[in-house]
Amino acid sequence: MIQVENEQIAGIPVLHISNSENTDKMLPTIIFYHGFTSQKELYLHYGYLLAQRGFRVILPDAKFHGERLLNANPEDQATYFWDVIEANIKEFSLIVNELINSGKTDSDRIGVGGVSMGAITSLGLLGQYEEIKVAVSLMGSAYYVDFAKELSKYAASQGLTFPYDVDERILALQKYDLTQNITKINNRPLLLWHGKKDDVVPFAYSEKLYQTLVEESLADNVKFVVDNNAKHKVSVEGMLEGVSFFEKFL
């Protein structure tokens, strides 16, 4: 039976999903991140499918989302979009360390994945933590600096103002931008899934990343899956691609 627990790990609200028969055992573990303006509960289907295959799955609520929404509105979430992603990246080690110390997570079998903002988070994490063995990006971008510039221009065109220096904020993203030091992928398995008609996170970012990895001879364990018809929504086939990828490599 698949067990879902709403709990806190390192003070972060999460859904903790596992097969009840193995819940107290040391398991390969996947931290899976939700999308922008969403929350952990809306990604339970990923957790269920992965737990069926023997994984421990942790679905955290991001800063200003879900149980951590506080008084934030969609404008606040947009204003502090990169702060949310940065918080995800910093909090990853807190979650994983607590799970390892409790004996519930195999430190040699840790994966990350996510959708949209969660996929962007996952690609940033891949460049920060060597202990990550597998990553799945569903509609993400590793090009933090380029995407941040694009988003800031769009926000300005919509009349959104920022209570901070935008150029300084973008500059600070360089340390999380995987493409600034592409060799950090270190031949780890990575799935890139993206809809060609995506009108939120441009498909071109995944395409460019894959082409760069191929040119740098870093794509041996990288799989690039294109959905020619999908917009900014993961298809059932895309979801199952992600699940199968974790099952194969983790």
Structure in words:
- With 250 residues, the chain is an alpha/beta fold.
- The chain has a single domain, classed as Rossmann fold.
- The protein has eight helices and eight strands.
- It has helices spanning 44-52, 74-79, 81-101, 117-126, 144-157, 166-172, 203-215, 236-249; strands spanning 2-9, 12-19, 27-33, 56-60, 105-115, 132-138, 190-195, 222-227.
- The longest helix has 21 residues, at 81-101.
- The two termini are 21 Å apart.
- The model has no long low-confidence stretch (mean pLDDT 97).
| Radius of gyration, whole Å | 17 Å
Strand order of the largest sheet: 1-2-4-3-5-6-7-8
Note poorly predicted spans: none
The first-level CATH class is given as: Alpha Beta
What is the H/E string? EEEHEHHEHEHHEHEH
Distance between the termini: 21 Å
What class would the helix/strand composition place it in? Answer: alpha/beta
- Under CATH, the topology can be stated as Rossmann fold
Main beta-sheet annotation: 8 strands, mixed
**What's the number of domains?**
1
Oligomeric state of the chains?
A: single chain
Annotation, overall tally of beta strands? 8
Question: How would you describe the shape?
Answer: globular
SS strand fraction: 15-25%
Helical content, roughly?
Answer: 25-40%
Indicate the mean pLDDT: 97
| CATH homologous superfamily heading | Alpha/Beta hydrolase fold, catalytic domain
What labels describe this entry?
hydrolase, Peptidase S9 prolyl oligopeptidase catalytic domain-containing protein, alpha/beta, AB_hydrolase_fold, single chain, 8 helices, about 40% helix, Peptidase_S9_cat, FrsA_esterase, 8-stranded mixed sheet, about 25% strand, Rossmann fold
